[in-house]
Amino acid sequence: MPSNMVSTQEVADMLHVTETTIKRWADETILPCVRTPGGHRKFLLTDIVRYAESNGYTIGGSQPPALTGGQLEQLEIGVHTRNYARIAGVFREEALQADREGMLKLFLYLYKQQIPFTAIVDEVVRPAFEVIGAEWEEGRLEVNQEHAASQATMESLILVSSELHRKGSNGLSALCACPEGEFHEIGLRGLAYSLECEGWKVHYIGANTPVETLTSFIHATRPDLVCLSVTTGRHRGELIEKLKRLASLVHSNDGIMIVGGYYPAKLNEKEIKCDHIARSIQDGVAYSRDAFSLKPGPKKKSEPKDKFHH
User: Fold this and answer.
1) Number of continuous H segments (helices) and E segments (strands) in the chain
2) 61-164, what's its fold?
3) Measured between alpha carbons, how far is 255 from 246 in angstroms, rounded to an integer?
4) How far is Cα of residue 208 from the mean position of the Cα atoms in its chain?
5) Domain range annotation of the chain
6) CB of 86 within 8 A of CB of 74?
7) Helix/strand/coil for 28
């Protein structure tokens, strides 16, 4: 079955009608379709777009970026049906080209299609890089390709951050960093920009930050929220002790600490004494919003929920 074919449910999502309606239209030949060997209806995207244009249905918005025909079909299907796996596949191909401007246009297009920035990073960028990482480990990609893709993506995120809608200041500050030895900061940047959109004042330190530097910064600025990203988990015992020390310092300053990244999924909050292990950027933002009882507009810091005190 061609990859540009969409299912009954996907067409229903695109046209904002029920799946039953799509089945009826197909059976009445209002919408052209083909049947799979199993009897399922499948539709060509071009037929759906043509029908929508002829009958006043809106399924698109701003013009998509310049892509190949196959990429464009996958992108449009993914956007209209919120099938993030399709979009991630297109993004992965663009990332491996290390085309910063192309990725920036793709990010802006997705954002203008009302896909939240947090979803773009969680559901598009992250799974694309999981595949890229696996391909590198299997020897199907050179390390320079992985590095170029990562760098171009990070630069594109920096550029797109200025286009994101930001709420008014909530009066709270956050520190975002990767501990020493951690160099993967794409997810951390995504979280930092997402917090800024929520009205946080973000101090972004970035990758490979020694514990002593973090300690000094926390003492000096007393951030309400500290967000750390851990990917590799080298020297597990030493890492846990460092995180526990930092958590104790954050709590002594009446703040909370969130740890995210790939490795913390193997840990738990009690083990490293942090307040929350974020499984995604959306999770981290939601936790911080709830912990500080954030509502639109400035708000004084309230006592976080379920904080560990030491």
Assistant:
1) 14, 8
2) 1.10.1240
3) 11
4) 22
5) 1-59, 61-164, 173-291
6) yes
7) coil
Two tokens at 51?
């029908």
Provide the pairing of β-strand 34-35 with 5-7.
unpaired
pTM of the prediction? 0.78
110 Cβ contact partners less than 8 Å away, ≥ 6 residues apart: 79, 87, 120, 124
What whole-number distance in Å separates Cα of residue 240 and Cα of residue 161? 32
CATH architecture of 1-59: Orthogonal Bundle (1.10)
Position 131: which residue type?
V
CATH architecture, domain 173-291: 3-Layer(aba) Sandwich (3.40)
Cα gap 246→242, rounded to integer Å = 6
Q: Tens-digit pLDDT profile for the chain (310 aa)?
A: 555 688 898 888 878 889 999 999 999 999 999 999 989 999 987 788 778 878 877 664 456 788 988 899 999 899 988 999 999 999 999 999 998 999 999 998 998 788 999 999 999 999 999 999 999 999 999 999 999 999 999 999 999 998 888 889 999 999 999 999 899 999 999 999 999 999 999 999 999 999 999 999 999 999 999 999 998 767 888 999 999 999 999 999 999 999 999 887 788 899 999 999 999 999 999 999 999 998 644 444 444 444 444 3
Dihedral angle, C-alpha 128, 157, 169, 114, nearest 10 °: -60
Please, what sign has the CA dihedral across residues 192, 196, 197, 200? positive
